[in-house]
Amino acid sequence: MNFLKLLQKSTLSWQNNLLLNIKNSMVTKFKFKKNKVYILFLFLFSIIVNQYYGNIGLFPMDSAHFFDSGYRVLNGDTPFQDYWLVKGPILDYIQAIFFYILGVNWQAYVFHASVINALITLGTFFVLQNFKLKDEYCFFYSLALSILAYPSSGTPFIDHHSAFFSLLGIYSFLLGINNERKIFWILIPLFFGFAFLSKQVPAAYVILLVSLVLLLYTLINKKFYLIFYVSASTILFILAILFFGKLQDITLSAFLNQHVYYPQTIGFNRFSNMIYNFQNAVGKFILIYLSISFFIYVNLRNIFLIKNYIKKNDFYVFLILFFFTLSLIFHQLLTKNQIFIFFIIPILCAFSHISVSNTNFKFKKIVCLIIFSICLFSTFKYHLRFNEGRKFHELRNANLQLAIDAKEINKKLSGLKWITPKFKDSPKTEINLINDIIYLLKKDKRNKMLITNYPFFSIILDQKLFSPSRVYTPDGTTHPLKNNIYEAKYQKLMNNLIKKNKIDVIYVTNIMNDNINFHYIDFYKNCFEKKIILKQLTSYELKNCNL
After folding, report:
1. 48-71 residue pLDDT tens
2. Where are the extended beta strands (E) located within 264-315?
3. In a shared domain, residues 428 and 290
4. What would you report as the CA-atom Rg of the chain, rounded to the nearest whole angstrom?
5. Which residue from 130, 314, 344, 398 has the least number of CB within 10 angstroms?
6. CB of 418 within 8 A of CB of 399?
7. What's the pLDDT tens digit per position in 134-148?
8. 185 and 303 part of one domain
């Protein structure tokens, strides 16, 4: 009898274990399938949403900034040697790769930004999963980021690239802390290096602050081997860049003068003229401050309540995200571009959500709901303002329904809905002006140099136009102005371009009264014959110049 009871008990136990294993297996398979669906959806959505908004309107100087220069690199031109480059060499090379694979056209150009948008979206999803946030919330916050990240510009932009590569470096730091795997520490300098080669700031601010946090983390936790991994990776990255520069015939002095020293003259001027008041420092970023407020509260509370909290990983996660936020805000206060850093709100909300969930709050479900609502409201608000309204490209008050397919300029621009701030009421007029210039430039078979703030003529004409800069701003952010200490170096670069490429004529466009501040022709005024071809196009023919 006892044997039968034991057998019955064993059978029931075996059946229960079998059912439990089947159940666990089914749950695991379901989670795995759900996870794959989330990843696939985020990848496709982040590509499509950016591809869509990258084709609605443009601010030519910004939107097409790397269009011609990527084409130039593809065709053998070298940054720093064949054109003055203040920032963003890595974008030219990446864009050249996209053109090589997908062909030289506007859609390949926008796809560059779309891929970066997908990369940081999936990176965010995986990082949040690694910090044990529920999959549904990981999906929501990552989706919100994909809407607020690159679509505000839609096309490759230096500030976006610098911030996003910096973010990937931050993610490597967080994963390195959370998992203690060597690969994440090795990747940190690579991402920060790409960020710095996209634009010096905000990358430089982030690198400086992260270095301080890393030093503090290694000293407090006595993990000195981490310094070795990061230092070794940094040295290898620098050596690789030097080797690549040697292959490209880029001199170290040219790189330092253009990418490191000259931008400091711009930065110092902006810093001295920075307007710092409550509206600028707080009012514009109020939703960012709200999104990080719970994160700050939890960590300040833990410092007082938890013994040796500054040794805990959670403290360094907070510290690194806090400093990253400050870096972006400080950068935004200095830059003259539209605000683009609202993408950080979903990230800060996600980590606020994680920190509150892991704390014994009496009303933590309500607090998490508030955090969720802040993210939802912010995403909706800034999506309407920057994506739908195209505010980043100064098109907020434009009637986007007036946009015209840019294939009327050239089939390589097909899919782009052409409308710009200066001609927002009559895009057809602007297109006609551009086509008139294209016709005249195409007719002229001489060796030409083109000075323009519409950086797509080389691609449309399929010609080398030897522009000494990508574009020409009146404030010196793209090239040295008169009396700048680097003026002579820029003049030397232009002289070399004229002589090496046997330039016969220099054309200067003025399509949108864009105030091209290009005074270098003044140096050669005795050897130029000036002709006004159109109201929007002036030529300077070289006559017996002694350069």
Report:
1. 999 999 999 999 999 999 999 999
2. none
3. no
4. 27
5. 130
6. no
7. 999 999 999 999 999
8. yes
Side by side, which strands form the sheet with 448-451? Answer: 448-451, 505-509, 537-542, 528-534
Distance CA 148, CA 377 (A): 12
Query: In 1-66, where does DSSP find H-type helix?
Result: 2-53, 60-63
Domain of residue 25 covers 21-53+84-393
In the predicted structure, residue 29 carries a pLDDT above the cut 70: no
Q: Which residues of 92-126 are buried (b: 16+ CB within 10 A; e: fewer)?
A: bbbbbebbeeeebbbbbbbbbbbbbbbbbbbbbbe
The per-residue pLDDT for 502 is: 92
Predicted structure pTM score? 0.92
Contacts of residues 440-449 at CB distance under 8 Å and 24 or more positions apart, as own/partner, are 440/533, 440/534, 440/537, 441/507, 444/505, 446/504, 446/505, 447/501, 447/502, 447/503, 447/504, 447/505, 448/503, 448/504, 448/505, 448/506, 448/507, 449/497, 449/498, 449/501, 449/503, 449/505, 449/506, 449/507
Bridge partner list, 531: 539
Indicate whether 521 and 479 sit together in one domain: yes
Q: Are residues 207 and 341 in the same domain?
A: yes
- Dihedral sign, CA of 391, 395, 399, 404? negative
In a domain, 411, yes or no: no
Q: Which helix (H) or strand (E) holds 344?
A: helix 344-357
Chain-centroid distance, C-alpha 105: 20
Beta bridge partners of 417: 56, 405
In the chain, the amino acid numbered 257 is N
As a whole number of Å, the end-to-end CA separation of the chain is 112
What is the per-residue DSSP string for 437-495?
HHHHHHH--S-EEEE-S-TTHHHHHTS----SBS---TTSSSS--TT-TTHHHHHHHHH
Secondary structure element (H or E) that encloses residue 163, with its range: helix 158-179
